[in-house]
Amino acid sequence: MSAVQExxxxxxxxxxxxxxxxxxxxxxxEKAPKGLxxxxxxxxxxQKNEPEWMLxxxxxxxxxxxxxxxxxxxxxxxxxxxxxxxxxxxxxxxAPKSIDEIDPEILKTYEKLGIPLRERDALLxxxxxxxxxxxxxxxxxxxxxxxxxxxxxxxxxxxxxxISEAIREHPELVRKYLGSVVPVSDNFYATLNTAVFxxxxxxxxxPGVRCPMELSTYFRINEKNTGQFERTLIIADEGSYVSYLxxxxxxxxxxxxxxxxxxxxxxxxxxxxxxxxxxxxxxxDKDGKGGIYNFVTKRGDCRGDNSKISWTQVETGSAITWxxxxxxxxxxxxxxxxxxxxxxxxxxxxxxGTKMIHLGKNTSSRIIxxxxxxxxxxxxxxxxxxxxKKAAGARNFTNCDSLLIGDTxxxxxxxYMEAKNASAVFEHEATTSKIxxxxxxxxxxxGLSQEEAVALIVNGFVRDVLQQxxxxxxxxxxxxxxxxxxxxxx
Amino acid sequence: xxxxxxxxxxxxxxxxxKGLDLTVPAGEVHAIMGPNGSGKSTLSYVLSGKEDYEVxxxxxxxxxxxxxxxxxxxxxxxxxxxxxxxxxxxxxVANMTFLRAALNAQRRTRGEEEISTPDFLRLVKQxxxxxxxxxxxxxxxxxxxxxxxxxxxxxILQMALLExxxxxxxxxxxxxxxDALKVVAEGVNALRSPERSMLVITHYQRLLDHIVPDVIHxxxxxxxxxxxxxxxxLELEETGYAAYGADAA
Lengths: 490, 249
Hints:
The complex is a heterodimer. Chain A is of the alpha/beta class.
């Protein structure tokens, strides 16, 4: 059997059941009654002691959602989702008041995932190694169970807490910015999220402050048949800077779990937000059974002049990914960036990309997308770059590369461009390649194993994007890439 | 060192090596000359374990081991090195990263410890300048944007770092001007040792002025048809391969 054929055979034979984060934590939980109705929305709001305005906002979204059709334009196919068959709210029974009250089972879960929640452990970590400190908000099913380093961040004036807490403690900020980037009726899944969102993170960085550490949220879906609808809102006030990391895993389950998040970023004048994601939701088994349906709306608004928003994502999990982190370049001279590695294997379907909406003068954007398809998966890049008629001097550079492993997978590129201003300059480059027999043999002849060879070639392919990730995340991402292509990669 | 007996190999339905016998003792440099299509490159692929080629008959013994039973990467770890006629590009993988990955993979296969970063850097620093390999070439993607000469020198650098027991050089002079050829040849000559054998595959006599072989074999239609000393190259340069039924090339 030739080397490439063997790789294909190995990829086909992948036991996706080896998903490393597929364990279930045995813990008692409280859940909303199954299904979705106004009562569910009221239940969620009541559970979270929300003010009236928040309940009204949710109910408005719910009523609008009822009138909206499910989108069908993405290049993904799946059986019709029965929205009445999910639980919309689940939380560990004993709600913790402080880190020491967290159910030890949950702490163990995060330990297994390699996420330290106990600040003192993290602090000890600094003494011995020169690891950068990361503040973590851990979301377990529908609620945030712990946020670390809060006190230290508060000293710098940075607010980092769960969105539920922010609604109670910082209503003026939440009311001003929530829904200002992704409006209530933006799209089917965003509207659903607005009605039933459970928890997520809130960040506010005051003017002129450079956030003293990386902020991070770790999402974990544990409960069966549960949708996770998190809502994240990050505001970088004038001249501030923040880097935020997001990680996701879920247990291995036969049925499809639903994940519909909304992330809103607001960068005011001269502010910069760097948002990085390593998404590793359960992708389903080798026959395509189970896995997470990931329908996510992520959007950043470069609201002030000279602001900058940068999205970096490593997408390896989920049965279905429907995700387009975007930038609205409203302020003059603002800049948007999108760096993406999307890997699909088994029966995974990925339809992902970005939108760069140039509104202000001399705005610039850069898109680097690397899609890797293996197994029987389909991987689509879908991107929109547009320049408003007032966006004089708008510039975009787009580079989309696809790498195919084997001949039963697909890679597709769907770029849209709209320039209403004659001075806009858009550049688009796209390539599709296959790992060649000759490349593999060259590596084997130098002593690398087949799996090492594929890993090396794939890592070379995604290098430009890996370089954009914060250091500790890049290492994790590199390992994840290897695991995702297990069977073809070591 | 290397002992090939009655080797038959094919690709698809096409038999290319048809009963080849060849013995290369330790420390000797043997040249294989022959017209295009005589099976020279195929022999290099069969020895290094490229999977498209199927051995249908015969045996290859390498230091007492059955070479044909080993995978390509096991053969590399056992000390078989092929300097490619057309080295491939591996974009995004820094040359240094690749060299180190290869060295460590071979060491692991042999059950040895991986080389430390300082030791590796020292080793590269010691070997690269003689081959005219700049820092820039070490940082760039493997063979990406390298000229023909740079690619060939890079092959020799890999050979120098991996320290194989059997070096197979496939058309090491193709695409090189005389100055580049001299650098490559000096690099190869520096690696000649009583423990290392070399198989130098070439169409032209020119290379053998610079890498002087102990023995020359003429290959034609998948077999060795004549064996002699280094003077055989000069004779072939005069008469061509016509005597063996080949078109003048």
